[in-house]
Amino acid sequence: MRLTLSVVLICACGGGDPAMDGGREDGGVDAFVDVSVDGGCVPTACPVDACGPVDDGCGGALECTGGCGCSDETAEVDCPARPCETARCDEGRCAYEPVICDLELCECEGCGDDELRPCGDGCPAMVCDPQPDGVGGFANACVPTASLRCGLCDLGVVGCDDADDLACDAPDFPFLDGSVAECNGASPAATVIYMDERVEGGTPDGSREQPFTTLEDALSAAVLRGARLVVVGRSPVFVGTRDVLDGVSILGGFAGWPEWEPDESFRPVFRAGVDDVAEGRLVGLRAFNVLTPTRVSHVRIETDDLRGESGTSNLGIALVNAPMLELEDVEVVVGDAETGAPGRDAAAVTTTITAGAIGQQGNPGSTRSCGLTVVGGLGGVAICDGRTAVETRGGRGGQGSGAM
Q1: Cα torsion at 131, 157, 254, 244 (round to 10°)?
Q2: Of 265, 269, 196, nearest to 239 (Cα)?
Q3: pTM of the predicted structure, to 2 decimals
Q4: Which of 13, 97, 159, 186 is disulfide-compatible with 207, CB 3.0–4.6 A?
Q5: What is the DSSP letter of 275?
Q6: In DSSP terms, which residues pair with 233 in a beta bridge?
Q7: Tens digits of residue pLDDT in 77-128
Q8: For residues 317 and 327, what is the distance between their CA atoms, to the nearest angstrom?
Q9: pLDDT tens, 322-359?
Q10: Which residues pair with residue 149 across a beta bridge?
């Protein structure tokens, strides 16, 4: 099974132009000579009497049925299998109809042979998987959409986007190439290693089927095998300060063994307590010299309250030279730190205030202008410890009034 989100269909039709049908003078459609038009190869069409796969002249193959004879009783045997189509016999010739899943036709215009076909309109509850076993041929199985896996090592699920088209919802690790990833966690060259403390039977080897039961074993194996990701099942609680390993990502959010279904209700917990205090600090997650792309995703970090640990800091995460570390969907719950020491009283301040100078004499009133107001002089200024303090200036003199 392969999920493809965008498909380009290239088809060719027969015609009478020698330049387009491989050079056949009579305009037939059964020539198989490579031709180029504007630098691209044009596939030829099926000969009318061909039955089964035929070379299209461009490195591909055509499923030809024009020459396939059949009977109503033996159509499924006589007619070549096609992806998500059911064979029937129509007047001695093979004909095809879309597979029906849950009373819905499964159709996909332009889909490749190994691509899923949605069944029905809108977001399909069922799809037709032409190659469910992944070994070739066309078994054409009806599969519930919710059961499909996709993305890096099938860590994602198939759903629908806003346009009701099939889409893959999977963890995004842009620094990991899914096309070359080694998904068998037991392999010496594993890309992904699995860990779930609740596994029954077997010998842990880091695979989906036999995951490690401790995070320490999983991380140690990741270092030895060069793995880049440890997937943690369920919501185990890991006690003690957790150190991030350069280049080894940690991913939670899975129901764990044996199906490893994505489930956001599960979240591994890293919890640091008083016993983990070191150098005056309690730290939940610590990263030092992370210089390779690394991600910690869908986990919870906790630190306990600090009582009786005077002068100790409480930190959820401490990073030192970790420019390549990414934290995604991480919950951080930091406990209280110890109450600080009481503050000391401030030193006593002695201030000497010198009496302000005598205010300036007011201007004399006028005897010539009736109603003229005369303003008094400015008040004196006090001197505090040798500095001029404007806020201690004396008041302005009173207003004089004119005389008749």
Answers
A1: 100
A2: 269
A3: 0.66
A4: 186
A5: G
A6: 254
A7: 888 899 999 999 988 888 999 999 999 999 998 888 889 999 999 999 999 9
A8: 10
A9: 999 999 999 999 998 876 666 677 676 665 555 555 55
A10: 157
